[in-house]
UniProtKB/TrEMBL annotation:
<keyword id="KW-1133">Transmembrane helix</keyword>
<feature type="transmembrane region" description="Helical">
    <location>
        <begin position="38"/>
        <end position="58"/>
    </location>
</feature>
<keyword id="KW-0812">Transmembrane</keyword>
<dbReference type="Pfam" id="PF13829">
    <property type="entry name" value="DUF4191"/>
</dbReference>
<feature type="transmembrane region" description="Helical">
    <location>
        <begin position="64"/>
        <end position="86"/>
    </location>
</feature>
<keyword id="KW-0472">Membrane</keyword>
<dbReference type="InterPro" id="IPR025445">
    <property type="entry name" value="DUF4191"/>
</dbReference>
<protein>
    <recommendedName>
        <fullName>DUF4191 domain-containing protein</fullName>
    </recommendedName>
</protein>
């Protein structure tokens, strides 16, 4: 008796992955072009330059033209991906700047060595100004979203609250926004990396201990107001594409 296998072949999965890969490239290009209209021309010029370079290499070295063209196409693709990766993140940040929770979307991308709380430490339900707590080598960093004149008291209150239970840990305050004394979203990762680590530099175990203390402090805090879901404050790529 013949048995019919119900297992699916891996081809549809590979096709879906390939389709998703090209869709991601298309979305990234759409996001980048919205902020940087020149990105398409930059990619085209770089690709043509790489191919021209491969032709020149073939004539100078005597290598087979097809071989140099193959290397040129690979180089062109690599350069285009580099340009796209450099522009899409900055474009995404500029397009969400000013939105509630935009700082959290950036903080989620800062990589290893940092602990970012999933919920804001303090939030104004009317204005949606927020304070986020981050722990890293420099100590505790309070990321404050909102106009400077409006969030000063909220930031000061949060600073006092944290200092009360972690008085030996350095506390830094970074104001995010478009004001004169504020840090733009695209510059936030670099600002965090440049924070001083002297005379105190937290180790991995100390970062873990401090984050646990902050988590216990958050569990005793006020509930998050309705209408704000900090766990879903991410870059909305569909909205950026105008859908």
């Amino acid at each position: 008796m013949w048995t019919v296998s119900t297992s699916q072949t891996p081809k549809p999965t590979r096709r879906r992955r390939l389709g998703q890969y090209f869709q991601n490239i298309k979305d990234s290009y759409t996001i980048s072009r919205r902020t940087y209209p020149w990105v398409g021309w930059a990619m085209l010029g770089s690709a043509l330059g790489a191919i021209a370079l491969s032709v020149g290499l073939s004539r100078l070295t005597g290598l087979a033209l097809w071989y140099c063209l193959f290397l040129g196409v690979l180089l062109a693709l690599m350069v285009c991906m580099i340009i796209l990766s450099l522009t899409v993140r900055r474009a995404s940040y500029s397009q969400i700047e000013g939105m509630p929770g935009a700082a959290k979307a950036v903080l989620d991308q800062i990589g290893r060595g940092w602990y970012v709380e999933s919920e804001p430490a303090a939030v104004n339900p009317k204005t949606q100004d927020a304070v986020w707590r981050v722990v890293g080598r420099p100590g505790i960093v309070l990321i404050v979203e909102g106009p400077m004149g409006r969030v000063q008291k909220m930031a000061a209150d949060e600073h006092k609250k944290v200092h009360r239970i972690l008085s030996t840990v350095p506390i830094h305050t970074v104001h995010v926004g478009t004001g004169a004394e504020q840090v733009r979203l695209k510059d936030l990762p670099g600002t965090l990396r440049k924070l001083p680590t002297k005379p105190v530099r937290l180790t991995d175990s100390e970062i873990s201990q401090v984050s646990k203390r902050l988590s216990s402090l958050s569990s005793k805090g006020l509930p998050i107001p309705k209408g704000i879901d900090p766990t879903k404050m991410r870059i909305d790529r569909r909205a950026m594409r105008g859908r």
